[in-house]
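Need a sequence for this fold. Nothing fancy.
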């Protein structure tokens, strides 16, 4: 029996439970964290909740939209693929790095349920979005331009704010407005609450998916038990896949993985006061990284978050305290090096990272037309990274001009010793609605960043002693006092035409690795870098913070009466002072497989481009249902202003277009979509990083879902024609080169070939 058939039979087996739950009462979730900034200053764009919705300043990825995308991938970052302006660096199968308008990773704010998690890895194998499975997400807010200071600092890009599923309670929903503090219901279908006993209800869901390419399988579940005042919620997920095949049938090494994520939330609600404790645990036993020299052979994450949200006569108050611990281990997967590595063989590398702090935010209703937000935040990060010695590695790194027998003998290599990066933030923001058509928002934020790190050592003094001594002789303590500002104006001509124009000044201090990665040794430097380019990277203690000055405008036109069409256009321009790029300081190896030794360095830069998105209902029929088209596209150009050198990994002109049909049939809702995804050739590359070009491509994806009562069935095909193509931000295929299957190192990573997937979800 095929695995797809097994998944469908599992859903059929759950039918009796689902049918019984269908008779239970249905209540909406209550979100005490409704944001007046978004709800009053924006309007829906007419997109269905299955695709998420767009406000004037943000894209909201709803729970329904996540449920539509989850059958195809467990990579949470890819849930954002429909948001205008967002692209992705290829990394591990569940660890893609989001890019907003050409600004990657650390340059964007990423918050999981109020917790800012830092990548605790020199290759950023554990980015923030990798710590939550799609099953646990309630919604995601993506802001790409005109980001208010209350939505995050210490960044020069956008903000990605992930909200876990909200607690569900047994009692009647809270009123729409309590003492002047807005409360709104979460979008999507209301949970089905099954009475267990008087005053106690339960709800839940179980999903399982199978993906043919890589033989991927995932199982996830959600459960909630609640009374009028207490709610206990659990989310769990397990997924596993092997290496995927490219369009030409070849196996792409180091693309397999296994991941487990579990979380629980205990919440107490009394009228408009909500207190919640959240715990999340992650275990990734292994995850391949095709465009890195290393693979992940273990990642444990523990997150604790205590939060309070309350409404008062004067407005709303929010407070939280959090702690996150990452324990990370890197080495080589067998398919890369031909043998099973252990902590005593290969190249073992360990990282221990911690994030902890608090957040305080007050939203004050100053008058009928004035809203003031003030806040204070502390985010503290500590990091230790060490590489135990391997007396006889035999690693075969000779292509880098090094001896595998001696380079990792005889002491522990200390890459980062007690690295610290702490940020204390204070902000104030004023929003005013001058008339029914005109409104403004201005804000100011201070982020004080202080960093430090202890002394380091290499494997031995012969190869690493000079570098270590030079680093240890310098003062490692650094303090940056940064200021951000936001000023924007909105003009609502009428419900069919809305405009926004804004200026932001945003600042980001260097990361721990950008400042404190110390070794110029070819092998050690090649272990640093989250860019997938094969080069070696060295930190720079003298780096200055990046300061981005951005102007952006958004025009939003729609048919508010019939919701028949919608278009949004956003052009933007950013000038970045002291953009952290690189300078070449040497060459690693020789011949066609040589790479560059690069030091992080400040250079002024500019980035500009546009996003466009839209949706239109093209037919509404009684016999064949509704037909609609949707699309999203964008372009970004980035270059250094001192040399006109291209910035690394700028996404060429790209877009998606989809035709969707939705019809009620056999008592359920059938939704089918045909999608074309395309990108122009990438020819503007950064020479100093030896970035490869990639050809243009277009692929076709098909997906369909059928929802009947409490059951949902998904079936789809990604890359229908089995097209051989390359992700423009995919980096180079280091794993094949390591394994000797590819003689040329600077070969782009082949993208995933045809994938057929299917799955079933039962709600009970």
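Here you go.
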């Amino acid at each position: 029996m095929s695995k797809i058939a097994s998944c469908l039979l599992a859903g059929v087996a759950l039918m009796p439970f689902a049918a019984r739950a269908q008779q239970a009462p249905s209540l909406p979730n209550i979100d005490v964290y409704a944001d007046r900034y978004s709800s009053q200053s924006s309007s829906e764009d007419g997109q269905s909740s299955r695709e998420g919705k767009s406000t004037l300043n943000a894209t909201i990825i709803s729970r329904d939209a996540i449920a539509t995308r989850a059958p195809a991938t467990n990579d949470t970052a890819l849930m954002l693929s429909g948001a205008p302006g967002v692209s992705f660096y290829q990394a591990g199968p569940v660890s893609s790095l989001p890019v907003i308008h050409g600004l990657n990773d650390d340059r964007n704010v990423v918050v999981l349920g109020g917790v800012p998690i830092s990548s605790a890895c020199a290759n950023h194998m554990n980015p923030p979005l990798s710590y939550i499975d799609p099953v646990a997400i309630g919604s995601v807010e993506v802001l790409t331009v005109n980001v208010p200071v209350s939505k995050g600092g210490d960044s020069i890009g956008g903000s990605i704010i992930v909200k876990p599923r909200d607690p569900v309670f047994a009692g009647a929903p809270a009123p729409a407005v309590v003492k002047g503090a807005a409360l709104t219901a979460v979008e999507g279908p209301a949970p089905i609450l099954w009475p267990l006993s008087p005053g106690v209800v339960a709800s839940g869901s179980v999903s399982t998916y199978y993906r043919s390419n890589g033989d991927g399988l995932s199982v996830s579940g959600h459960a909630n038990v609640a009374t009028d005042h207490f709610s206990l919620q659990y989310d769990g997920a397990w997924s596993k896949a092997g290496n995927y095949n490219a369009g030409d049938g070849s196996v792409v090494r180091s693309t397999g993985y296994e991941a487990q994520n579990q979380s629980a939330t205990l919440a107490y609600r009394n009228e408009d006061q909500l207190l919640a404790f959240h715990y999340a645990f992650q275990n990734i036993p292994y995850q391949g990284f095709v465009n890195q020299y290393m693979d992940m052979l273990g990642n444990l994450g523990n997150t604790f978050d205590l939060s309070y949200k309350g409404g008062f006569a004067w407005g709303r108050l929010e407070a939280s305290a959090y702690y996150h611990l990452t324990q990370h281990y890197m080495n080589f997967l067998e398919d890369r090096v031909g043998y099973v590595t252990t902590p005593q063989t290969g190249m073992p590398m360990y990282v221990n990272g911690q994030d902890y702090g608090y957040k305080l935010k007050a939203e004050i209703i100053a008058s009928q037309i004035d809203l003031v937000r003030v806040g204070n935040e502390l985010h503290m990060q500590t990091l230790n990274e060490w590489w135990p010695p391997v007396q006889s590695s035999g690693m075969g790194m000779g292509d880098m001009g090094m001896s595998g027998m001696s380079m990792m003998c005889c002491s522990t290599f200390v890459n980062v010793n007690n690295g610290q990066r702490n940020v204390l933030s204070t902000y104030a923001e004023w929003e005013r609605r001058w008339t029914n058509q005109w409104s403004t928002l201005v804000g100011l934020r201070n982020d004080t960043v202080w960093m430090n790190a202890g002394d380091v050592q290499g494997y031995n003094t012969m190869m690493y002693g000079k570098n270590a001594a030079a680093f240890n002789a310098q003062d490692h303590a650094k303090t940056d006092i940064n200021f951000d500002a936001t000023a924007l104006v909105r003009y609502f001509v009428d419900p069919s035409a809305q405009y926004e124009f804004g200026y932001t000044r945003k600042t980001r201090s260097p990361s721990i690795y950008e400042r404190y990665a110390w070794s110029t040794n070819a092998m050690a430097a090649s272990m640093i870098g989250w860019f997938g380019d094969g080069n070696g990277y060295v930190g720079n203690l003298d780096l200055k913070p990046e300061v981005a000055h951005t102007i952006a405008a958004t025009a939003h036109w729609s048919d508010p009466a019939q919701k028949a069409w919608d278009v949004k256009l956003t052009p933007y321009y950013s000038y970045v002072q002291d953009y952290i790029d690189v300078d070449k300081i040497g060459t690693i190896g020789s011949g066609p497989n040589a790479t560059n030794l690069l030091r992080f360095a400040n250079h002024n830069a500019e980035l500009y481009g546009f996003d466009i998105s839209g949706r239109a209902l093209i037919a509404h029929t009684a016999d064949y249902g509704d037909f609609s088209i949707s699309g999203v596209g964008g372009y970004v150009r980035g270059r250094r202003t001192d040399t006109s050198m291209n910035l690394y990994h700028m996404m060429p002109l790209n877009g998606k277009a989809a035709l969707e049909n939705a019809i009620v049939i056999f008592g359920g809702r059938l939704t089918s979509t045909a999608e074309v995804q395309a990108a122009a050739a990438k020819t503007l590359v950064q020479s100093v990083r030896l970035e490869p070009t990639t050809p243009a491509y277009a692929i076709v994806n098909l997906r369909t879902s059928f929802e009947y009562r409490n059951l949902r069935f998904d079936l789809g095909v990604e890359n229908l024609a089995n097209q051989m193509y390359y992700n423009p931000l995919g980096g180079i295929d280091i794993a094949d080169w390591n394994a000797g299957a590819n003689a040329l190192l600077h070969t782009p990573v082949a993208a995933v070939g045809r994938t057929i997937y299917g799955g079933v979800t039962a709600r009970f």
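For context: Confidence is low (pLDDT under 50) at residues 1-52, 174-190, 393-405.
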